[in-house]
Each structure stands twice: as C-alpha cells, then as structure tokens.
Amino acid sequence: MVRACDASDFDAILSIINDGADAYRGVIPADRWKEPYMPADELRDEIGHGVMFSGLEEDGGLIGVMGVQNVADVALIRHAYVRGVRQGRGVGGMILQHIMERTERPLLIGTWAAARWAIGFYEKHGFILIEGREKDRVLKLYWSIPDRQIETSVVLADPRWLAKNPQSRAPESDPDDPPDGPREK
C-alpha cells in the first residue's frame, strides 16, 4: 500500500534513502558522494523546505519512498529510493504512479546523467529527457544545487511540462549556426 509518510516515518525514510543510494555508488561523481549519502540533518532540512514523502508499505514497514516538493509552478520528484533488496521489483513504479495520480502540477525529476537505469525508469513512465542548455536552465530555475551537480545531472519532464514548455523538447542547436546547418569557416 502506498501512503503519505509522516513524522513517525523519519527513521525509515532516512534508512531507505541511504540503503537505496548504494546503487549509485560509483555512478555519482566521487566529489558529490558522501557517507552517509544523506545525513539526518540534511533530511530534516529537506522536509523543512517542503519535501513531502510517500512510501510503499509492506508487512508493516516502508520499503521505498519518494518525495515531492512544490517549487513555483511545478512539483519536483525528490529523493526516490527503494531498499536495495527490493530494487527492480516495481516498488518505485507503484510509488511514482501514486504521486502522478495525485499531483496536479507538472512533474520534473533530476537525476545523475550516468544513472542510465534511473533515466530509463522515468522514460518508461512517460517522462521525457531534457538535455543540454535547456536542462541547465531548468535545473537552475527549480533546484538549489551546486554547478558541479548541474554539470553531472539530467532532467526529465512529464507531458504536462512539455505542453507548456515546448522548447524543452527541441534539439540542441548553436545560436550562431544558420537554420539550415553550420556555416563554412
């Protein structure tokens, strides 16, 4: 059963995030990795800044969590993790579906560019990859993350975002190139 998490779930959320983040070891750039991946104070700060978690409960305990944070005109998926022993079994998909059905705002997801499985997961659920300068613009607009993280991340958007922001779907082009291709030099 997917349900909204509350204050009594704090320790379970923290445990799931740190256990699930182990799948990213060696994928997250070494200069962005830390142990534990999310300290308790950082999770408290995230919750204090409006991240609300939902989780999948099984046999009386949470096995996966996903946060949502409303920022300006969108909802950001934040800290989506499943316990390592339960990964690849549909837990994340059930939580994401629950969130998608209950969120009226367009959804955006930021993840590590090297985490191809995570990108594929979101694409399987209808999200579209935003790359290049547009990705950088969106990350700077909605997230508060260091430049190094912007360099090493991607954004995925749901169809509602893309309907309002068609430029996010456009392929990258160099503004100095003419419309029919690069100039000869």
What does this structure look like?
This protein has a 7-stranded mixed beta sheet, with helices on both faces. The chain is globular. Mean pLDDT is 90; it is low at 172-185. The longest helix is centred in the middle third of the chain and has 12 residues, at 91-102. It has 185 residues and is of the alpha+beta class. It has a single domain (2-168), classed as Gcn5-related N-acetyltransferase (GNAT) (Aminopeptidase, 3-Layer(aba) Sandwich), CATH 3.40.630. It has helices at residues 10-20, 40-48, 91-102, 116-124, 132-142, 147-151, 159-164; strands at 2-4, 52-58, 61-71, 74-82, 107-112, 128-130, 153-157.
Name the helicity range: 25-40%
SSE arrangement, N to C: EHHEEEHEHEHHEH
Number of helices: 7
> What fraction of the residues are assigned to beta strands by DSSP?
15-25%
The CATH topology, please?
A: Aminopeptidase
Q: What is the CATH-assigned architecture? A: 3-Layer(aba) Sandwich
Q: Would you state the CATH class? A: Alpha Beta
The major beta sheet can be summarized as: 7 strands, mixed
> How far apart lie the N and C ends?
61 Å
Beta strands, count: 7
Uncertain stretches: 172-185
* CATH superfamily membership: Gcn5-related N-acetyltransferase (GNAT)
- Number of domains in the coordinates? 1
Structural class assignment: alpha+beta
* Net shape: globular
Summed over residues and divided by their number, the pLDDT gives a mean of 90
If strands are numbered along the chain, what order do they take across the biggest sheet? 1-2-3-4-5-7-6
| Rg for CA atoms | 17 Å
